[in-house]
Specification:
The chain is α+β, with helices and mostly antiparallel strands. The protein is elongated. The protein contains 2 helices and 5 strands, in the order αβββββα.
Amino acid sequence: MSLFNVFNTAGSALNAETIRLNTTASNLANAESVNGDATKVYRARHPVFQTMMDTSAPTFDEQDAGAGVRVMGVVESAAPPSMRYQPENPAANKDGYVYSSNVNSIEEMTNMISANRSFATNIEVINTARDLLLKTISMGH
């Protein structure tokens, strides 16, 4: 894999982790939301990633293949919202129940830490590849 492919691979990973961080932030911001209708309460969202392989080289072999990450989309969690009896809540339904978001704050904080570390690692990969490329160029002249 050439150094230029490293930039593309790390760049696609940075994009994916940015989407993961934004999705996690949205989930955390809506973690305490309630609604009187279970179908309208906020549901946790999670990005879906797929590995990309660049096989466009005419003589494709595994050593020259570029890889990356593609964001396929964002899906809603299928976990049911929790139901609580709160007749004093203005969002309560006619029976006095509210439905809470199915966001698990601990899971979301773990996702945020993981995404942050992955983001930082990919920045280091880009910086190292840049430094190697600059050394290669300066040695060639």
